[in-house]
Specification:
Distance between the termini: 53 Å
Strand content: 15-25%
Number of strands: 17
Number of helices: 14
Radius of gyration: 25 Å
Shape: globular
Helix content: 40-55%
Structural class: alpha+beta
Amino acid sequence: MYIEQSPPTTEAFAPILEDYGTSTITDEILDGTFDVQSLDISQEMKLFLKSIKRTPEEERMHVPSRMPKEAFQEVMTVQNESTSSSPSAIHYTLWKAIAEVDELAEIHSLWLSLPFMYGFICERHKKEIDCMLEKKAKVCQIHILRIIGLMEGCWNAYLKWAYNKHIMPNAEKSGLSSNQWGGRRGQSAIACATRKLITWEYFRYVKETVLAFPGDLQSNFDRMLPSLNSIISMKYGMTKTAACCRAATVEAFKRHIRTAAGTSKDTYQHECGDVRLRGEIQGKPDNMQLWAMESSPLLKLHEEHCRGVELKDPTGNMLSRRMGDAYVDDKDTSASAPETNTIQEGVDNMQHRAQFWAILITLVGQAFAFHKCFWQGLSWMVLGRYYIIQTRDKFSDLEIWIKDHRGKASKITYRHHDKPNDGLGLRLAPRPIKHLNLRSVWNKRHDCHQELKIQASKSVRRGFR
């Protein structure tokens, strides 16, 4: 982000992120008393800062920094004992045993809370292991591997309690964007996929033009700024000391690297004078909730400044408007052509809406993975009594180009309306082809069966030895 000169890393924005996002400027932004017009930042960034001002209801929200004994016991009781954690070799078995004794649980819940109550870093919590996992089987190039962080079990327990029991419920009461489905209790990937499917089906039924731009983000959690997340967490009641402790600990992590060859003895970490190692760690239990809260004002701004698609019921008495559906970092931006019902108008509208979303995500340090982005849609030709879906050769001159925050434009690939988008566990396409999902499920079951046979044969051979 620093090399790319992402907007939150600029000199003009730096004062807002001082003291891990807990400075007096932050207080003024949350109170709505800070003059954002005095900053040399973009108009979109000013809109974002104004949008995170606390409401009267949010001003009354308070999250306790002291974790009660009962909460410690509850978190540890439901924790899966086989979960990997704790670089210091303190396994969840020990924490679960401690939780069974009231006196020990009281002591441990107290000392676990002390760093969050007084805003300092616990030395043991600075230990972290970056596990390098294959995204695709037998593809081991380092830039394609997935990195999952292993942190101390007690540190994870506190974050689960603070965000699941307090901060996220406060955010839900305050009103998060209905277009964000990830990281929220009661919402699911299937529900998000169903709404995307309904959108396609509606426009296919009424024979109107509709386009979608599935935009995937680069390393979403790794580009989230802990200091900015402190501001978002404080908006929903987290104390300054707890926010400072959380962000400072993440930045101070001493990171080992684990591969199939073992775990490194040496570590890498932020050193004084170096570019700061910003970013949350994938595998931390508060990431999903943090992005749900951080993306909500962006989604609301997108809906406020861009016209979404409209779905009307047959009687005309009910209307559903939507700008798009997001599940964590994967968001499908939608556009229609309400004036002329032509593909030309649809592409023009999509160009504007997708570009505005590209601007909004850069405000919090995110960026599109342009090589994964594409656009597709449905548009119709009338032949007598029939409506025929237009093919690409009918509008081959129409393209969508998206600029990043530095002004570099990238051409977005067009995908045929019969070609599905693999996501959320389903394969969705503008024109439904049911056998694709059935074939996908069958292939997954077949692969799982073959892997079980291989593992079973290995176990038998070991038994004979």
